[in-house]
Design a protein that fits this description.
Number of strands of chain B: 25
Distance between the termini of chain B: 60 Å
Distance between the termini of chain A: 43 Å
Oligomer: heterodimer
Largest interface: A-B, 58 and 54 residues
Shape of chain A: globular
Radius of gyration of chain A: 19 Å
Low-confidence stretches of chain A: none
Number of helices of chain B: 25
Strand content of chain A: under 5%
Low-confidence stretches of chain B: 61-81, 245-260, 304-322, 348-353, 722-734
Strand content of chain B: 15-25%
Structural class of chain B: alpha+beta
Helix content of chain B: 40-55%
Mean pLDDT of chain B: 75
Largest sheet of chain A: none
Largest sheet of chain B: 17 strands, mixed
Helix content of chain A: over 70%
Order of helices and strands of chain A: HHHHHHH
Chain lengths: 176, 738
């Protein structure tokens, strides 16, 4: 097996682990799903290109978040409608928090998968429209013939119950 | 002022006004924890998005043939359209009616022909184990049996312990192993009159493992097996393809980059072109190549044996050792006999050659066997004055006759003698079914009469469910995992609330490598019996196996709180702590394991390893030697002792220990690597190269193997031919222990 393939494999392995954290961080900087996903793809390409520069003694997720920060800074005119994370310092702080939370987020993701199995009926449909179809509450309300406020409340309650379920699962795992 | 969490939700839903944004900025600045909450919430949004996208892609994948068939029947909506059209062009009503009927007749004829099963038939089922399903035209056919037809467009699925063999019309056979899904796509051009295939041009392997023997024809149409990662194109050959499921639990379902299921091609005869977008290789007879998404297939490596990949319905690629009867006694519904010794067919000369004999390989402390004076290494000659040559026969006798004295004839050196051994009656490890006294007696009697070969239909009867479970245990002692799993599953179907059945099914699934399903069943067992130490222990083991030592540790500690004297739990704790690099604690846990069960070889081995990690070589040697006293056939302990010698640079002894480990277990990859290290140290380059090549053939993808080979090449180019000067010698991967 040649070195290039090994590098590729190594990168794929590291990126698979770091990807959800970087994605969550980008979701904060760029809340629109499609834009965040485009940006994530760009970040992945840049990371692969720069992978030979990566210092293997440092955590990969930190390096990936650093690269992602520069990509956000470069693309902020295009993507950032919000001013919340427009400044380099704010992005820097965000990156640090993401890196710090990386291990926790991995565990939460696993718990979420279990919790999702318990969501059914109207709540499930709402989540599907919001996250699979990427519709905003206004559009969901039109599609379902409901008031926007009702959609917002239902979405909020569903997410709250998911959050509670995640916490419960983590506690149970901790207790087992 | 809206509360912070509400603002966060609005922000992530893209519904924050500029005024709200200032409020959110203030809220974020007010407390550093608030930014953490925002990141957690964004992560939740992202994960929900990924889960839904993954779900959609899976459902699209699963319903692909169903949609195709819906398309074929889509003409049913046309009559209405035609009727409207006829009315809109103002034709006289009668003429419109005639035209409508005519068109309808033509359509009906067309649809009937297009869905004529004879035109689509591509082969027949010739062998079925279990109840696999076939999806055709959006329906699931449950009555799949030998001689059932297989059509273009079918999707065939097997589950735990099931298999199907299909013979296509040209004689090519396709065998699906357990938990496998294939689709036989119907090519678009087939819609007209080209259903003249004698075998499908392509079979899509979505999950699992298949084996195919291709009919050799000079003008045969191309025949290929396609997976997500690569395509194997064959012309006159015999080969197998499997989609390797990622070991890490649920790691790949949510990310695009995470879909890294590798495809492994194994060729027994002929040549197979194995390719994807990144490259192509030609795999010839007795070779294996691996393809991953995003990279070209690996260069085919030579295989010495196909035993592990060629598993037919009764020949599973078992990943752990056969169930022995000391364990099986606790897994029978209603309990069974336990004598506390293990027996294996081994060569008489403590090596790999020579005649085999049944030898005692383990005697538990405080067991009937220990009290009767049995010792490790004793040869079992006869049972009840009848010569025995099968370990299973002894197993069965003691298992099914609890509390009954039985005569066992043993040989130790030249001495031969007979002991009377009475097995203890053990109750099941997890609660079994609640049986009346009469039912219990009937169960024991009927279990004794059970024959492993006899297939028993499923039944809702409580006693029948218990019998299914007991039959599963007996089959497992014979290493017949397929039928055993089917029996356990029937028991679970008939008694879903019985923890023992779930537990047994979970352990059997683990053996065939179905870890996620095993986790489900074991979790169910623990849910049904939350106080089960054994259930929690097995859950912890699976977690450790899935690369989650932290979770494994918390579960182990919880189980230890209930059973502080369980040496297995201390061993598990030592192992997980060592994985977490908490070495001192690992030593303490291993010491507890040894104290709790001084006769357990594995506990001593763990202690040795933990001590060696702490560089206490003298104490580690004592532990390893004790382990080998108790289990002289344990290859890993020999290897670990060799590692200890290598640390002290006692090279000759190290090499000898590694060679002994390989004699006992020729597939022990780590021992190959360690031996190559010892050989290089004494300058035997060519021999070291050959040993490394063996390791590479056994595990070409192992990081350690690749690293060792690279280090070897590098160091050989620098050091070969020089005088033996340790100062300028390379540093290869140092021997590793288990």
């Amino acid at each position: 097996m040649n070195t290039l393939m090994e590098t590729h494999e190594q990168f794929t392995r590291l990126w698979t682990e770091a990807h959800p954290v970087v994605a969550a961080c980008l979701q904060v900087a760029v809340p629109d799903f499609h834009q965040a996903e485009d940006l994530l793809q760009e970040v992945a390409v840049v990371l692969l290109r720069k992978f030979p520069e990566y210092d293997q003694t440092r955590p990969f997720v930190g390096w990936a978040l650093g690269v992602a920060r520069f990509e956000v800074l470069n693309a902020r005119r295009e993507y950032a409608r919000s001013r919340l994370f427009y400044e380099p310092e704010a992005l820097q702080r965000l990156g640090e928090v993401c890196e710090e939370l990386a291990p926790e987020l991995e565990v939460r993701a696993r718990a979420l998968r279990e919790c999702m199995e318990k969501v059914e009926g109207r709540a499930r449909e709402l989540l599907r429209l919001r996250y699979e179809e990427a519709l905003k509450p206004n559009a969901i309300a039109v599609q379902l013939g409901l008031a926007v406020v009702a959609v917002r409340v239902m979405l909020s309650r569903t997410r709250a119950s998911l959050r509670q379920c995640i916490e419960r699962t983590l506690k149970q795992e901790g207790a087992q | 002022v809206r509360p912070g969490p509400e603002l966060v939700e609005a922000f992530l839903d893209g519904e924050l006004s500029s005024g709200d944004e200032s409020e959110l900025a203030e809220w974020l600045n007010a407390d550093p924890q608030n930014l953490r909450s925002l990141v957690r919430e964004a992560h939740l949004h992202h994960q929900l998005r990924q889960l839904h996208l993954a779900e959609r892609s899976v459902s699209q994948l699963k319903t692909a043939p169903v949609r195709k068939s819906e398309g074929a029947h889509g003409a049913r909506g046309w009559p209405e359209q035609l009727w409207c059209w006829a009315r809109n062009v103002s034709l006289p009503r009668a003429a419109a009616s005639v035209a409508f009927i005519l068109v309808l007749s033509v359509l009906w004829w067309g649809i009937r022909n297009a869905t004529d099963p004879r035109a689509l038939e591509i082969g027949h089922v010739i062998n079925v184990v279990g109840t696999p399903s076939v999806h055709r035209n959006g329906k699931e056919l449950v009555e799949l049996s030998a001689a059932s037809s297989v059509q273009l467009g079918d999707r065939v699925e097997t589950r735990d312990a099931e298999s199907v063999e299909i013979r296509f019309n040209d004689g090519t056979t396709l065998q699906l192993h357990f938990n496998t899904v294939v689709e036989i796509p119907r090519p678009d051009r087939d819609r007209n009159a080209t259903y003249t295939f004698t075998r499908p041009p392509e079979v899509q392997l979505l999950q699992g493992q298949i084996w195919t023997v291709v009919q050799k024809t000079t003008n045969g149409a191309p025949y290929s097996i396609r997976t997500e990662a690569a395509t194997a194109l064959a012309l006159g050959t015999e080969f197998g393809v499997k989609v390797d499921r990622p070991l890490q639990f649920q790691s790949t379902s949510t990310t695009n980059s995470g879909r890294t299921n590798a495809t492994v091609l194994t060729v027994k005869e002929g040549t197979v072109e194995f390719f994807n977008a990144f490259g192509s290789v030609q795999a010839t007879a007795m070779t294996e190549s691996t393809a991953r998404p995003g990279s070209a297939p690996t260069e085919p490596r030579r295989l010495q044996t196909l035993q592990q990949v060629r598993s037919s319905s009764g020949d599973w690629s078992v990943q752990s050792s056969q169930l022995d009867w000391t364990d099986s006694s606790e897994r029978m519904a209603g309990g069974a006999g336990w004598s506390g010794f293990k027996v294996r067919a081994l060569s008489a000369s403590n090596g790999v050659n020579g005649p085999t004999a049944l030898r005692i390989t383990h005697v538990s402390a405080n067991s009937p066997a220990a009290r009767a004076g049995l010792r490790t290494g004793d040869q079992v000659v006869a049972l009840e004055d009848q010569p025995v040559s099968e370990a299973g026969a002894i197993s069965r006798a003691f298992l099914l006759n609890p509390a009954k004295p039985m005569k066992l004839t043993l040989r130790r050196g030249e001495e031969e003698w007979t002991v009377e051994l009475t097995s203890e009656r053990k109750s099941s490890i997890l609660p079994g079914p609640r049986l009346t006294v009469q039912e219990q007696a009937a169960l024991e009697e009927r279990t004794r009469l059970l024959t492993a070969r006899e297939e028993r239909p499923g039944s809702q009867n409580r006693l029948e469910a218990a019998l299914q479970n007991n039959r599963g245990v007996l089959l497992e002692t014979e290493d017949q995992m397929g039928p055993a799993i089917r029996s356990y599953r029937r028991a679970v179907q008939a008694g879903p609330e019985v923890p023992l059945y779930r537990f047994n099914l979970g352990l059997a699934l683990r053996k065939i490598g179905s870890f996620e399903r095993a986790l489900e069943e074991l979790s169910a067992a623990v849910r049904l019996d939350p106080n089960s130490v054994e259930g929690r222990k097995r859950l912890a083991e699976i977690r450790a196996l899935l690369g989650e030592p932290s979770l494994a540790l918390t579960q182990t500690e919880a189980a230890l709180a209930m059973a502080p004297e369980d040496h297995g739990l201390w061993e598990l704790k030592a192992q997980t702590l060592s994985k977490l690099n908490r070495l001192q604690e690992s030593v303490e846990a291993a010491r507890r394991a040894v104290e709790t069960e001084p006769g357990c070889a594995v506990a001593h081995r763990f202690l040795g390893r933990a001590l060696m990690a702490l560089n206490d070589l003298a104490a580690a040697e004592i532990a390893y030697r004790r382990s080998l006293e108790l289990a002289p056939f344990d290859a890993v302990s020999h290897m670990n002792l060799g590692v200890l010698f290598s640390r002290r640079m006692e090279l000759e002894r190290a090499e000898q220990a590694f060679r002994r480990a390989l004699e006992l277990e020729p597939d022990l990859v780590q021992a190959h690597l360690n031996l190559s290290w010892a050989l290089i140290e004494r300058g035997a380059w060519d021999e070291a190269r050959a040993v490394l090549e063996d390791a590479a053939q056994l595990a070409p993808e192992e990081v350690e193997v690749r690293a060792a080979r690279q280090a070897f090449l590098l160091s050989e180019s620098i050091n070969r031919g020089r005088s033996h000067n340790r100062d300028c010698k390379f540093s290869m991967v140092h021997p590793g222990s288990w």
